[in-house]
Amino acid sequence: LTIPNSNSQSQLQNSKTIVNMSEAGRKDMGQKAQEKMTPDSSKSTLDKAKEGITNAGDTMARDAQPDSEKSTGQSIADKAGREKDDAQGKGMLDKAKDAVGMGNK
Question: What's the whole-model pTM score?
Answer without folding.
Answer: 0.61
